[in-house]
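dumping this here so i dont lose it
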């Protein structure tokens, strides 16, 4: 029987495993716990995806930025592991477009992204750093959780793995899967309290309704026109709501990136036309050279069944209030815990929130 099972191999689950294992290694009087992390996907990282390109440079299709100036856990992490970061490119004018046929207005904006930092090698460097510190026998990919059963003095987990149903017994289990996804995809026996289920269903999964694009170019031509690459579009039918410079720190790998403005239903309807719609808008923003990209990569998080549910089709209008108190308590008499960025009350939705939640649960489990 396991001591602790962690469900979900994103930043929260990996950092929790690292905290728990490091704590027990430091305590020579305590028996080494039996801890295993289970991940449904065939990769670790969850919503952290950094697409390999060249010269160890990767494009982030999930979270792109950290703010070490006011995110203390990430600041400590990158300092401890000597992870290099660089500022978001801000030199030049930003653009704002109010209608498709109206020329974009330029303005100076050195504040929106000023505290933001990008990680050399992409945000997946955080995941790689944690994986290097965890034993392989504690990491299980392609284990899709089906059911969680409370047996009073232990919890039974039923996984789908290699076309079979696998049973795992554990004394405690931590769910780092987003609450809405968890309650929609996993059976709990006995059923969770209706009030708790309602909280979970009403907790939006961050990024689940969004799509992100990366548009690679031979060179960052917009910089030559004194443009920062930052642009906002606020009109019906805009393909991209936000655009920013995603070029490598040395300027060798040029790219623009940003979030699509089209909602999930329209993205599905115009799936074959998305690239053309994106380029049409970029040409109107940055000129004719924007029509000749090297590559366009689109990551639609809503079509990922291990990220989104139907409730995520329409993203919230503003940043959700995360960290509901019920998601920060233990359940089933200290056997069931919830972690993940949606359970963090200070930095919910951010990478810092993933570390915040794993810190909270680790303290509770180690008491």
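and the seq i came up w/
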């Amino acid at each position: 029987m396991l001591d602790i099972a962690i469900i979900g191999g994103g930043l929260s689950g990996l950092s929790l495993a690292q905290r728990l294992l490091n704590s027990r290694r430091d305590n020579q009087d305590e028996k080494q716990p039996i801890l295993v992390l289970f991940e449904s996907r065939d990769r670790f990282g969850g919503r952290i995806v950094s697409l390999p390109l060249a010269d160890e440079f990767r494009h982030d299709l999930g979270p792109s930025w950290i703010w070490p100036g006011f995110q203390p856990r990430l600041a400590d992490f990158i300092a401890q592991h000597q992870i290099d970061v660089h500022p978001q490119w801000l030199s030049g004018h930003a653009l704002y477009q109010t209608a498709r046929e109206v020329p974009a207005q330029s303005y100076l904006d050195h504040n929106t992204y000023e505290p933001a930092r990008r990680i050399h090698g992409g945000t997946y460097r955080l995941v790689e750093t944690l994986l290097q510190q965890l034993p392989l026998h504690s990491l299980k990919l392609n284990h899709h959780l089906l059911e969680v059963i409370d047996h009073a003095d232990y919890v039974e987990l039923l996984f789908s793995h290699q076309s079979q149903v696998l049973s795992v017994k554990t004394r405690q289990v931590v769910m780092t899967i987003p609450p809405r996804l968890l309650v929609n995809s996993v059976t709990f026996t006995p059923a969770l309290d209706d009030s708790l289920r309602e909280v979970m269903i009403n907790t939006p999964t961050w990024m689940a309704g969004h799509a992100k694009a990366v548009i690679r170019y031979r060179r960052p031509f917009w910089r030559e026109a004194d443009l920062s690459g930052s642009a906002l579009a606020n009109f019906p039918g805009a393909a991209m709501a936000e655009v920013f410079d995603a070029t490598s720190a040395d300027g060798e790998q040029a790219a623009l990136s940003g979030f699509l403005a089209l909602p999930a239903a329209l993205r599905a309807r115009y799936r074959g036309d998305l690239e053309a719609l994106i380029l049409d808008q970029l040409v109107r923003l940055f000129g004719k050279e924007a029509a000749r990209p090297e590559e366009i990569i689109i990551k639609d998080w809503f079509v990922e069944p291990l990220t989104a549910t139907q409730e995520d089709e329409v993203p919230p209008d503003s940043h959700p209030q995360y960290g509901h108190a019920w998601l920060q308590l233990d359940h089933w008499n200290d056997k069931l815990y919830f972690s993940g960025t949606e359970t963090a009350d200070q930095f919910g939705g951010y990478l810092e929130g993933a570390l915040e939640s794993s810190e909270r649960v680790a303290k509770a489990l180690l008491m």
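Residues 26-31 have pLDDT under 50 and may be disordered.
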